[in-house]
Structure formats: C-alpha cells, structure tokens
Design a protein that fits this description.
399 residues; mainly alpha
C-alpha cells in the first residue's frame, strides 16, 4: 500500500475523532456554554447535516482541482473551524463551526476515497478502502475515549485543540505523500460524472449503503442506555463494551477489505446475515450480560465487514467518473446514520423497550439483503444477455 493511503487514514482518524467525541462531552459543553443538554446535542446533529450535504457539493465544486489541493484545502478549513470553536464562548458560533467542519470533512472523505482507489490496482481497491475507513474505526476505539478523557480533565476546548493539531500534522503528510497535479486527459468532466449517475444499479448500491449502516447505527446509537437499563451493567462497564465493539469493527473491516475485491457480493451477504442474526440475538437476550456483550462485539465485526464491499461496488459501477459517485455514497452513509437512530428514537418514544432496537436493526439488515439480491439477479440477467449476444455474433460469423 502506498504511504499516502496511511496518511489519509490518519487524517480520517483526526476528523473522525471530532465527529465522535462530542457524544462524551455534552455535560461539559452544556455547563460551559450555559445551554441545555438537548441543545448541546444539536451540535452532533449539525455535524451529521453538514456531512450529508457537503460531500456532493464539494465534489462538484473541486472537480477540476488536483486532489492534493482539494485535500489540503478541506483540512485547512477543518483546522480553522476547530480553532474558532475552541476559542469561542458563544454556542451559536460553535454550532456554525460544527457545520463547517462537517461540510469539509465530507468533502475530504469523497476526494480521499477517489485518491485511494486511484493509487492501487483494481484488485486492491477493497483492501485500500479498508485502510482508509480503518482510520474511523480506530477513532471509535481510541479517538472517542481519548477525546472524552481529555475533555473531562482539561476541558472540551483542549479536545478541539488536539483535533486541530492532529489535522495539521495530516496536512504535512498529504503534502509529502499525495501526488500533485494531473495530466490534462485525467481531469474529470462534469457531464461524464453526471452521466455515470444515471445508473439504476448505482442507486441500488446507495440503498445497500444506507440500509447496511442504518442496521448498525440504530443499535449503536443507544448502546449506553441499553446496556445500563436492560442488560443491567453499571456505567463503568459501558466504555469497555464500546471498546470491544470497536475492536470487533477493526477485525471486521480487515476481513472485509481482504475479501471485498474478490467476492464483493459474498462479503456483503455474509456481513449482512451476521448483522441480522446478531440483532435478533440482542432483541431476545438483551437482559443476558454475557450474550449481549458478545453479540455487540460481533455486531461490530459483521457490520464493518460490509463497508469495503459497498465502497468497491460503487466504484466498479461508476467506471471512469467516480468522484461524484463516491461523494453521493458518503451522503448515503450519512442518510443511514441520521435516519436509523431517528426511527429507533420514535419507537422508544412510543413506549417500546430497548429490545425493539434489535428488531429494527434486523429489519434494516433484511432490506439491505433484498437490495443485494436484486443486484445479484440483475448481474445474472446481464450475464445471460451478454452470453446470448455472443452466440448471435458467433452464428453470424459462421463460427
């Protein structure tokens, strides 16, 4: 793997830490800024919204830039947003910095994905993407608890300064390792990018992306109260279980990366079946601590194993115009991240117990499997058509 891939994974780790760490800093933010916990929680929602719209818009706006220039520009704005956030005493300004930071983070994801895929042969795309996404997985294991600890002991502003510093280091790495410039014939054209988007198979792949991540996030978003109120663990156990989930996710993305290029559909089916089964296990045996903790760790493995496969599927369908397609896939991830927890919250507000989250996760997983089944069936039909076309051609030529 080229060094640039690991540098980009480091940048994703830094930015992913910012995305995740606020979940552990809401009390400190609430007290320091003089706002309620729900208002502080809007800082998380603002980040999700910024990511949802940022990827496609910035992919289009920077389409003709060199990828190194785009990556450095996004990181520079991200650093400045976190410096401004660390310095402001004003909640409204902090809210704006979160939207801006998420906006360029989404653009970074889109361009970094295309850069990584362009640095390796086609049969190594899944493995390269697993390293890039591994940056976010490590942020889940290390960045989230580390950011929380720093924020609790040194203040939440110190956590923001730390993210800004890591992002600045990543900028230096991008300058050193990511190729600059482009050949004239390699500059994307907007009409080619838009033409690639007019593909029903691509949108079906986006559906798989959103549903697969939704199946995971509807449970993950409420893990802490589920573990305390239903499983019966104390608060002290929650970080350890989250760490187990993160380790499982790292194992899953490693396995998925090694198999996604050779067996993309097989990887998707195996991972999604695992998510469905484990979600049902959690729905039925949430109150059994040993079973629940084991299922949560394995859920991270199964859920993240699908990630490289959904990414490589999108790139294979986008062909020579991958930039906008990759950006919309980032938005599809964020649709799942936003919608699934919202659906789970509606069920909880309606009076359902936390075990319902397992059933909802299983439902999202089954729907994702349906999209994979439709894609496989379409591929087989296309194979038959190609075979028929070959037979006609051979008959016409007398062979």
């Amino acid at each position: 793997m080229p060094p640039a891939i690991f540098v980009l994974a480091l940048a994703i780790f830094a930015q992913g830490t910012s995305e995740l760490m606020l979940a552990g800093l809401l009390p400190e933010l609430s007290t320091d800024l003089g706002v309620s916990i729900p208002s502080a929680g809007l800082l998380i929602s603002a980040f999700a919204i910024g990511m949802l719209v940022g990827a496609p818009l910035l992919a289009v706006a920077t389409l003709r830039w060199s990828r190194r220039t785009a990556l450095l520009s996004f990181l520079a704005v991200f650093v400045l947003a976190h410096v401004a956030g660390a310095l402001t005493p004003n909640y409204e300004i902090l809210l704006v910095t979160r939207v801006v930071g998420a906006f360029v983070y989404a653009g970074f994801w889109a361009v970094a994905s295309v850069t990584v895929v362009g640095l390796v042969p086609a049969d190594r795309r899944g493995r390269a993407m697993s390293i890039l996404v591994g940056g976010l997985t490590v942020a889940t294991i290390l960045g989230l608890p580390l950011g929380t600890v720093v924020g609790q002991h040194l203040g939440w502003r110190a956590a923001f300064w730390g993210v800004a510093a890591m992002s600045a280091v990543a900028m230096a790495g991008v300058v050193a390792t990511v190729p600059g410039g482009r050949a004239a014939d390699s500059i994307p054209r907007m009409k080619d990018e838009l033409r690639a988007m007019v593909n029903g198979k691509l949108w079906l792949a986006y559906g798989t992306t959103a549903l697969s991540v939704g199946a995971l996030l509807v449970i993950f978003s409420y893990l802490a109260p589920l573990l305390v109120e239903v499983t019966g663990l104390t608060d002290e156990w929650v970080p350890g279980v989250l760490a187990l989930y993160g380790v499982g996710a790292l194992v899953g993305i490693t396995i998925g990366g090694r198999n996604a290029d050779r067996r993309p559909f097989g990887t998707l089916v195996a991972g999604l079946v695992g998510v469905v089964v484990l979600s049902v296990v959690l729905a039925i045996w949430t109150a059994q601590p040993v079973v629940a903790v084991a299922a949560i760790a394995l859920l991270g493995t199964a859920g993240f194993a699908t990630n490289p496969a959904v990414n490589t599927r999108v790139f294979s369908l986008a062909g020579d115009a991958p930039t906008l397609a990759a950006a919309v896939n980032i938005s599809a991830f964020n649709v799942g991240i936003t919608v699934a927890p919202w659906v789970g919250g509606l069920a909880l507000e309606a009076g359902a117990g936390y075990s319902v989250l397992g059933w909802i996760g299983a439902g999202f997983g089954v729907l994702a499997l349906v999209t994979v089944g439709v894609a496989v069936a379409g591929r087989r039909r296309d194979g038959v058509r190609e075979s028929d076309r070959g037979e006609v051609s051979r008959a016409a030529s007398g062979r």
